[in-house]
Every structure is written in structure tokens, then in C-alpha cells.
Design goal:
The chain contains ten helices and eight strands. It has 226 residues and is an alpha/beta fold. β2, α7 and β3 form a beta-alpha-beta unit. The longest helix is centred in the middle third of the chain and has 16 residues. The two termini are 35 Å apart.
């Protein structure tokens, strides 16, 4: 077996790629529906986040600090309890069967599966566990006295940050050459697309579709009915 085959990895974006929805927004709605957060500005913050994300002008640090401020007085154990329920009740029904099947195929070939998402890592980790991914990377939030402070720790897995975090992981694993399959829906992930050997655009947004056409990248449409 050559080194090139040995070091294949499959990387997946999460929101709107493996999941029919945005996990951050679904989490916001969960906290609202459970009356854990009752301030209507909490929902408006998320609407603005989505608009800024698609306009490619999201300030991720500012958004997450404001978002966590609404429930940071709860300790991490309590939040993790909600995360487990949220993943089971809200996320599982929205995972694309095609994604689950492809992840299973990669794992059967002993190709590591990595999920990298611009969502808080405590959510990404729980969802990646449902998907049997080998590694998950999200935005790590600072912890103090068993509470989230609202500040980001390390490099956020957003846009170019996804490439930086992936390179950190490869360096830690002493991986020199890697053949990367990368699945994403979003033009925000173009920095990582350009680092990949094989891009699969899944339910791609308008800009990613355009670039995929130009670059002859593979394009797939996934839905919940298959």
C-alpha cells in the first residue's frame, strides 16, 4: 500500500451538508422552545447571524459571545444534558441518509472521517458522535469554573480557520501527505476546498455551484427521503 493511499481522509462540513438545517439555529430554537432562554432578542440575533453568514460578513467572535451570554450562567454539565437531548430529538431526524451511508463506506475502507464545522465544538462533538466520525472540530469555547465564558479559545473553525485547524491536526499526527475528500455546501468553505484533492459540493449555495462548475468539482444533491 502506498503512502498516498494510506493517508486518505474524508472531511465533511456539517450544517446544510450532512444536516438538513443549521445546527446553531436549531440549537437556538431548542433553547427557546424549552423556555431555557425567553428573551426574543435571542432569536433575532440568530436571524442576523444567518444573514451575515450568507453575506460572508459574519463576525463569529461577536456572535458567539452574544449567543452564549443568554445561557452562560448554566454550568457545562447542565448544558451537556440539553445537548444530548437536542442531538437525539432535533438533529437525528435531519441527518441525510446519503451522508450516513458515505461515512460508513469510508470507515469500512479505514479512511478517517473528520467533521469540521463553524459551530461550537460542544454541539459538533455530540453530532459527530451520532455520525460515527473519527474526529470532530468545532469552535472551542473558553471554560472557567465549569462555565463557558463566551470567548473563543484557539483558532475558530471558520473559513480559513478550518484549513489552519486541519493543518494543526495533521502536524500533531505527523501526516506529511494526505489525499483529502471534502464535502461542503458553502462558499465560506472555499479556502478548504482549494486545499482538497477531491471536492464534492453537496446542495451547494449559488457561489459554490458557480465555482464548482468552473473547477469541474463533483456536485451532489442529498435529501431526507433517500
Amino acid at each position: 500500500m502506498t503512502d498516498k493511499i494510506k493517508n486518505k481522509i474524508a472531511i465533511f462540513d456539517l450544517d446544510e451538508t450532512l444536516l438538513a438545517g443549521d445546527s446553531s439555529r436549531l440549537w437556538t430554537n431548542y433553547l427557546w422552545d424549552k423556555k431555557i432562554v425567553t428573551d426574543p432578542h435571542f432569536l433575532k440575533l440568530d436571524e442576523q447571524m444567518i444573514a451575515d453568514y450568507y453575506a460572508e460578513k459574519l463576525n463569529i467572535n461577536q456572535y458567539l459571545f452574544q449567543h452564549l451570554a443568554y445561557f452562560k450562567h448554566y454550568d457545562i454539565d447542565k448544558i451537556n444534558h440539553w445537548v444530548n437531548d437536542f442531538t437525539e430529538t432535533r438533529i437525528k431526524p435531519l441527518l441525510y441518509p446519503q451522508g450516513i451511508s458515505i461515512i460508513t463506506q469510508y470507515r469500512q475502507q479505514n479512511i478517517p472521517v473528520i467533521i469540521i464545522s463553524a459551530t461550537m465544538s460542544f454541539l459538533v462533538y455530540a453530532i459527530a458522535k451520532q455520525l460515527n466520525a473519527d474526529v470532530s472540530m468545532g469552535i472551542d469555547m473558553q471554560i472557567k469554573d465549569n462555565h463557558y465564558t463566551g470567548f473563543i479559545e484557539g483558532i475558530p473553525t471558520f473559513r480559513e480557520g478550518k484549513v489552519e485547524r486541519l493543518n494543526q491536526w495533521k502536524e500533531a499526527k505527523d501526516i506529511n501527505y494526505t489525499y483529502i475528500y471534502f464535502y461542503t455546501d458553502s462558499s465560506n468553505d472555499l479556502p478548504l476546498c482549494y486545499q482538497a484533492d477531491h471536492v464534492i459540493a453537496v446542495n451547494a449555495d449559488k457561489k459554490l455551484t458557480q465555482v464548482s462548475d468552473e473547477k469541474a468539482w463533483e456536485q451532489q444533491h442529498w435529501d431526507l427521503n433517500k
